[in-house]
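Sequence in, structure out.
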Amino acid sequence: MEEYKHNVIKQYIKNNLNMTPDRQELLFKRVERSCQIQKALKYQELESEGPGEEGRIWLSTEGMAHSYYYNKTKGTNCGTQIWKKNELMLFSSSLSRGEYRNNYIQMLEPGTVLSMSYKEILAIRGEFPEVASHLEHISNVNEQAFQHRIRLLNEASVQRIIQFEEENPLFCNIASVCTKAMHVGLTRQGYSLLKKKILEKRRGKG
């Protein structure tokens, strides 16, 4: 497991940060001693809501994951983000500003996961400007995804399902109906009923 962790960290640094080999090695040594590795099960929750300073950044190397929060008013879970394998999972508002973490992070496939505390990554960010730039890039990508989700949820229910499934084929192949439904603002029953109507309409056109 330790050798696997070393290889993943080195590959991530090489692929995602513009650094000289010497700087890459310095960063690797700094990250390696702060990073944990574990095996995760399908549907295992990596993180639950809690104080911002207790958050962690996550990297799933073998499976997809997603996040959601519990809407107390509606009494239901609401999907917030989807991560493919080898995408860094974090919440910038908690990492940078210490805001309370409302989200749960859940694995959708089993696999190996690396993680590091927000405290450690903030220290590394202060030591390596390249890491600071990379985290800022991730923050911008996450914000774009958030804005896109808002626009999606303003669409009619049927259009939401069609667009969501077109944009997230890998996710939709492995996620349960309940999980897909929470990402388009529908109940499991509502999603299933509308999906049935969509398929019937397509068969009729065929």
